[in-house]
Amino acid sequence: MATTKKANNKLTNISKHNLLKAYKLMATAKTLADKYEETFKVVSKYVHATSRGHEAIQIATGMQLLPQDYLSAYYRDDATLLAIGCTPYDLMLQLMAKKDDPFSAGRTYYSHPSLKEDDKPKIPHQSSATGMQAIPTTGIAMGIQYKELRKIGEKHKEAPVVVCSLGDACITEGEVAEAFQMAALKQLPIIYLVQDNEWDISAHASEIRSGDASEYIKGFPGIKAMKVNGTNFLKCYETMEEAIKYVRKERKPVLVHAKVPLLNHHTSGVRKEWYRDDLDEHMQYDPYPFFRKQLEDMGIKKSELDNREEDARLLVDDHYDKALKAEDPSPQDLFTHDYAPTPITEEKGERSPKGKEKAVMVDSALFAVQELMEQHEECLLYGQDVGHRLGGVFREAATLAQKFGKDRVFNTPIQEAFIVGSTVGMSAVGLKPIVEVQFADYIWPGLNQLFTEVSRSCYLTNGKYPVSMILRVPIGAYGSGGPYHSSSVESVVANIRGIKIAYPSTGADMKGLMKAAYYDPNPVVMFEHKGLYWSKVKGTDAAKTVEPDADYIIPFGKARIALETSAEALENGETMTIITYGMGVHWALNAAKKFKGKVEVVDLRTLHPLDTATIYQSVRTHGKCLVVTEEPVNNTFAQSIAARIQENCFEYLDGPVRTIGSENMPAIPLNSTLEAAMIPSAEKVESVIAQMLVD
Predict the structure, then answer these.
(1) CA–CA separation, 193 vs 63, rounded Å?
(2) Residue 334 burial (10 A CB sphere; 0-12, 13-18, 19+)
(3) For range 95-117, the mean pLDDT
(4) For tag attachment on the chain, is the N or C end more exposed, with fewer CB atoms within 10 Å?
């Protein structure tokens, strides 16, 4: 590599070509920021931030990344994007939310990239929520490590690295700590690049942290810490070169803490002059004139630098004019890429093979996962206590670690956010993770990742990065589990668009839906009622079924008629339908025994997509409808079903749609008498059926 003399006569290994390339990139980043200020009334329609003050460390990083690498760039990283090969036009298409925005097709903010191009590092979905990127990006590194251990996937001359860009203020996030913990524990090949400008928005570092990232990371042994003056491009390049080489070779994590000034607004909507009293001080550390002086001191002619500045100005002006004239999305573009197409569209395989005994539901799920892991090495399972010692608190993963290895079926720390959010990264590198939240009551810490990262990835990357994962969630009241092991949470989860939801009531449906979920390229939540796992609850024998064969699969969005009415009762107008799912199916089946032939039971099997065709057909046939849920009724998914029925089947109804569920109390008490009073039962459902058939 060619060398260039520094001012102090020492040599740098950075070639003149790369130095001038870096200078043009820095000039381009500055010119972008200047252009946005100059045309503020035009570009401020959509919020944006720029990299002013951060350019040196960003360009030093981006220039050294390879196409096999992965990058998480946060919303101030436009200089990084320029350095990996994005053009000002690319960035401006997103700035103005244009149809041809290569990242999101006009759906998300400036510098929220997603890239899947052969000649650039890969960038999965990037959200605005600061710190949220740490978990998905660490999931990428975990996926790369798994593939290297298993020797699967594409081989590269230089091993890939993962770079996660973070602002220092987000280091206080609990989810960032979860990411650091797993990187340290598993020794993952990732670089956390922390750009510290000492500002949150208007909150200064002195108000919000006890120490910076380089001090904080000492609490995570095994992560190498490096510090650099982020305003000095030469130092930044050398530091990132060292960090990248270390990770490529040693396959261990690094945190690089770069001290930088913030020279522009927090965002275009939060102006620096509103709250900053240190602007003059920060301007003294502007990396742009500092880098120019370094280059001049090295003997590079001013004309060469001036030419690159002029080239940058002309490029930005030209790309701005083109972007301004580019086409906006059409209203129809709103409705694309909410989900990736699934290949599973019809029921296949043998549901009830002859000569087999009935199996409990938990075993049907276990055998489904086992068969998938036997066929697909990219399938792996992790969560709390699912590893080799226990195999899950419900034994739902028993023997799997012994059969497939501890690197493939493993325990995680108690950190639901990481369990859920890491699947974004695992999926991005071509894996299919099956993960578990131990109880539905503990899903709440994971909802941040499920909502912000998992569910929106396909839509906000314009279809480039659907998240292919299965989240298993044991749910429901069973055997006096009390207030923290009994909750039903489907209504909250059903309000997260971009995911699919299964809630089987039998072992056969569990296995068929688990297989469908695996082959579906979208994220799937599997609600699995704990009371049905072993059929120990009175009246749940119907959950035990003959185990379907290995090829059995059920498409999502296809309900099952669990109980039919008789022709005689239907002819006499004495029938009704019950729409339900999960444990509600068994309450309904047992309650219907007192009304032979008069009750149809529709088992939804999946909550999204919802089989409205079967629901409406059943309601139109019978004229009376009861919706049964285990959740407290008010503001629930069940009530939304009732509303849909009344909107679409009103003229067929003989009375109002009724809904029954748990009492509207904050939690399920531990005492068995109080629990019974709280949740539905076959007897309670029976009472409502009797009233409705008489009315």
Answers:
(1) 14
(2) exposed
(3) 97
(4) N
Torsion of Cα atoms, 166 then 172 then 173 then 174, to 10°: 130
Place 315 in a pLDDT band, splitting at 50, 70 and 90: very high
Cβ-based neighbour number of residue 61 at 10 Å: 30
User: What is the C-alpha to C-alpha distance for residues 5 and 532, in angstroms, rounded to an integer?
Assistant: 74
The pLDDT of residue 11: 52
The CA distance from 213 to 389, in Å, is: 36
Q: Give yes or no for a contact between 666 and 641, defined as CB atoms under 8 angstroms apart.
A: no
204 is annotated as an active-site residue: no
Question: Model-level pTM greater than 0.90?
Answer: yes
At position 686, the amino acid (one-letter code) is E
**Closest residue by Cα to residue 420 from 528, 499, 510:** 499
Q: Report, as an integer, the average pLDDT of 606-617.
A: 98
Contact 241, 25 (CB under 8 A): no
Structure tokens at 637: 């998914």
Which residues touch 219 (CB under 8 Å, ≥6 apart)?
none
pLDDT band at 545 (very low <50, low <70, confident <90, very high): very high
List CB contacts of 555: < 8 A, sequence separation 6 or more. 342, 344, 345, 346, 347, 516
SS (H, E, C) 381-445: EEECCCCCCCCCCCCCCCCHHHHHCCCCEEECCCCHHHHHHHHHHHHHCCCEEEEECCCHHHCHH
pLDDT over 90, % of the chain: 91
SS3 at position 40: helix
Interhelix angle for 55-62 vs 287-297, to 10°? 70
Contact of 446 with 469, CB cutoff 8 Å: no
Rounded distance between C-alpha atoms, residue 656 and residue 464, angstroms: 45
What rounded mean pLDDT belongs to the chain? 95
Residue holding tokens 């630098």?
A: 305
**pLDDT surpasses 50 at 3:** no
pLDDT higher than threshold 60 for residue 5: no
Task: Identify any residues that bridge with 501 across adjacent strands, giving them in sequence order.
Answer: 525, 608
Q: Beta-carbon neighbour count of residue 142 at 10 Å?
A: 26
What is the distance, to the nearest Å, from the Cα of residue 223 to the centroid of all Cα atoms in its chain?
A: 25
pLDDT band at 9; cut points 50, 70, 90: very low
Q: What is the pLDDT of residue 10?
A: 58
Q: What pLDDT was estimated at residue 271?
A: 87
Which member of 485, 529, 586, 608 is catalytic?
485
> 10 Å Cβ neighbour count for 405?
15
Q: How far apart are CA 165 and CA 187, in angstroms?
A: 18
CA distance 551 to 368: 10
pLDDT surpasses 60 at 8 = no
Minimal CA–CA distance to 283: which of 366, 197, 354, 176?
197
pLDDT digits (tens, 9 = 90+) for 371-415: 999 999 999 999 999 989 988 888 988 999 999 999 999 999 999
Distance CA 437, CA 630 (A): 19
Asked whether 641 and 579 are in contact (CB, 8 A), the reply is yes
Q: Give Dmax over CA atoms of the chain in angstroms.
A: 101
Q: Strand 470-475 vs strand 432-436: parallel, antiparallel, or unpaired?
A: parallel
